[in-house]
What we know:
This protein is mainly beta. It contains two helices and 24 strands.
Amino acid sequence: MKKNFFIGAVFMVLAAAAFAQTEADFDVTLTDDGTGVVIKNFTGKAPKIGAAWQVTIPATIQGMPVKEIAENAFSRSTYSERGLNNQGSWVQTTQGMTSVIIPEGLIKIGYSAFGLPQSINGSPTLTSITIPASVTEIGVVAFQGSLITSITLPAGLTKLGAGAFQNCTTLKNITIPEGITEIPEGMLEGCKAITSITLSDNIRSIGSGAFSGTSIVSFTWPGSVPVENIFRDGLLETIVFAEGVTEIEYSAFKNYNKLTSVTFPSTIKEIKSSAFYGCSSLTTVTIPDSVETIEFEWDAFSGCSKLTLATQAALKRRGYKGHF
């Protein structure tokens, strides 16, 4: 029994080694400044290690450090093979990589580098990725549609592209470092497994639809961030605006029909047209007593038919003249 186990283990090691990536598996060019390598395309196949078809990107190629992954470099990486199915028949199968290890020293992950499609039939396959501390930039839709469940962005990251994790429907946890000051448009759009998000005090802007289609139900809006429509068709129920928020932009929460409660800070000064138009489940709006007047545009709360009488009265006392 021990002998058979030993032989099996040796076979697995040899098989992994036989299919390990070599420099020849990567189509490369030089960075613009000539100090490193850019991976343009992965031309090899991923060795099956355990249950994962893993790709390990080398730290150097031909003695030069690997610094960048170009656009679409791994988005169409697949491996086809013939094998026996459960019925004993030979079949052709196509497998996309499921795991990627990026080496320390890499700086930039380009546009759609690991985005869809990741297999011939367009089905996503990538479930695990290791991003080193050296990465400072992640491009537009870099991981769009992948099946990752959790990701920690490196502390040195300073730039995120629009839709970087768009439609990663299995993503549950993401850690955003303090070096990020801008959340790009559509960054987590369609990430329906995301139920909460924590933002640092360094965030200065959040792009349109950044959290659209997530399952976030409660959100505290940072005081330093302009208020725009970042959830769109989300499930948001409760929102608290932190001190520092002064105005709510046009149509920022229009037709958020799950929204039930809104809390404003003492710094609120203006609520623009259609800001909460059609929020048909909204019942409570909390405004500090210190706020005596607010500049409302006439339909800011139009269609909010479930607002309590006390809430309607509080809004009217502060200058709201529109319909509910």
